[in-house]
Design brief:
83 residues, Mth169, Chain: A, three-stranded antiparallel β-sheet, 34% strand
Length: 83
């Protein structure tokens, strides 16, 4: 079966986010009442697996091995069967 995973990788609290800080400052300069901006990466992954559990296991492994740095990143994902 084919599945689609949406993976979001973001910095753990306490880690500096220079891109978010730059974006926040730019939005404030445009007179938006912004307090904070944090930047995340989103991956949309199509994959083959025999079950949703296998797909979730594969996506978790992808996150741990490549997509997220466990020292500085948190990640979350959702896997759904492709319609």
């Amino acid at each position: 079966m084919e599945y689609i995973a949406r993976v979001e990788v973001s910095l753990k609290p306490g880690h500096s986010d220079p891109e978010g800080e730059t974006t926040k400052n730019s939005l404030k300069e445009l007179n938006y009442p912004v307090r904070d901006v944090r930047v995340s990466k989103v991956y949309l992954i199509r994959l083959e697996a025999s079950s949703v559990e296998e797909a979730e296991s594969l996506v978790d492994e992808m996150c741990r091995r490549l997509l997220a740095n466990p020292v500085k990143d948190d990640y979350k994902f959702k896997v759904e069967e492709k319609p």
